[in-house]
Design brief:
Strand order of the largest sheet: 1-11-13-12-14-19-15-18
Number of strands: 21
Radius of gyration: 26 Å
Length: about 650
Amino acid sequence: MFNNWKRVIEEELSGRQAFRYADRIAQYHRIQASPGYRQAAREVIQMLERDGVNAELVSYPAQFGERFLSHFSFQEWKCEGAELWIEVPFRKRIARFNEEEISVVQRSISTPEDGIEAELVVIENAEEESSYEGLNLEGKMALVRGNVSIIHALAVEKYKCAGLIFDNLTEFKPIRTRMDLPDTRQYTSFWWNHEEEVKSFGFVVSPRIGEELRNLSKKQPVQLKAFVKADLEEGQFENIEYLIPGKKEKEILLVSHLCHPYPGGQDNASGPGTLMEVIRTLTRLINEGTLPKPELGIRFLMMPEMTGTCAYFHQHPERIPLTVAALNLDMVGADQTKGGGPLCIEQPPLALPTFVDRFAYKLVEEIANNTANFTGTTEYSTVHYVKTRFSGGSDHYIISDPTIGIPCPMVIQWPDKHYHTTDDSTKNLDENMMKLVGTVTALYGYGLANGEESDWLSYTMHHLGTVGTHLTHAKEWLLKRNLSEEQFRNAFSIYIKYEEESLSQLDSYANLRNFRSLQEAIGQMKGLILRQAEIVSEIAKKEFQPLLANQDVSQDWMNAIYRRNYSAPILLVDEIKQLSLQERYHWLKEVKPNVSLGYADFLFYWMDGQRTVKELLYLTKYETGDFFPEYANELLQLCLTLNIISREIVTDSLSLK
């Protein structure tokens, strides 16, 4: 597809230039709503202007009381300096902000001007309240490991600890275990959204220093000296916007978040660095006439992760129906020989059917081929890439939320050995990977904005050819979920419907582009989806095993229907801050950990003001494999209390089993 455009884009787009953009970005400590982020944003504007691109810097208020769609804003944070010393039994500096910005828990507040001298207390299993029994923490500093919100609620709010020291290092096996990076520090942050919150300071040490402190405290009392000079105040944060105008109002949106602590090379200087090179490349080629002016506009957005995306749509709701599709670049430049995981193309949730993730993956397949067998009869790639189901965790989870309704795949390398640590420098990036992703992104944006009908006919034939494969994968996945025969049929019907609606989305795109031959072809193909589904279903009947467990669950409360009161995903960790400490602890420690990460997001994605809770539960089960009715009941009651969902009048509804 797009062979002529692919050639000219590959000739112009430079992986080296993308790397140099990223390297410049990575010189700044880019915490959301901070002077370092602002400096990085202005640097991006200056570099783009130097290269012939006039992008715009758009400011939004960073202050308590503001809300952008479902997301709370927060105050601007400025840290001028911070240090942590061992004073007794010997003097040794173990943290200093100006040499390792991540050595301070981000958004820490100031200590008294002369600092705080306090005894060290080691709290093992610091998320468990029983670990605090018999401890006198008031005015002391605690070495802890675990969830920041839970530990802060217990150690600081309840037991009056003066400050916290974290030696966290999250493991992502097999790429990273705790001892793989003994001298790195992990990005750790407080997130204050309300004036009334109890605030504190904290430091971050490496696993090696953490073990040193633990061993030292077993032998004798340890005295520490902490100093932090930082301000939280009303300020602002910035988005970078740029538009290549099209002949029509409709547009494609390409995004990448600019924020994260220094050095933040892979996460996420690599994303905006690559996107900048896409901007430069397409602008130059279109201005020179090498590429025709696109029919649809191509808009670019670089922003603080999630916060900036919500702010953008909050300010420009009129652009939502004009945006046909989007693409999110997050962590896209890692050298796979240095701990960078596979290049993943993540699909949007099943609640928002689309074809664009498969389109993006097809582009990766075509562009990644960089070698061949001896005779040249088969081309293939030395790059490891995969297509994955929806997971979330970045801006695409906002853009693809059905309340926004813009299909947005994500391109990401995951897992990554150096993720959220001081080791995440640009020395681990790969210019070739950045060129690959940049070329895919440019062709994705320009192909959707101005692809010719012949190219889209070619893609549509490919799309139809993969339907059977996708249905087969769905069948195999569902057969492992311990479903009854009726549940399997209902679940498989969801995947069939997804294929039909994906093709309908492609039909809508063809109509937008006035591709009549493509629409005729799609009309002829619709029946083939059902035929392929019938074949896969017949095979499934022969493979089906008797149900072992997991019978249908039905209770009166499941007949209720709810709708969300805000657009965009719900951040419960922020919403529950208005609850009492004990209520927050109950939710964070006793309820939420019992379900898989992101489970609530899937429930909310399916919540449309028409489906019953039972339908939400089973749709989520068929998408994730998880079924947590007790949790869902408590979640819904919590959200009603917090006024982030509303109950609708119950109407007759077909229930899924």
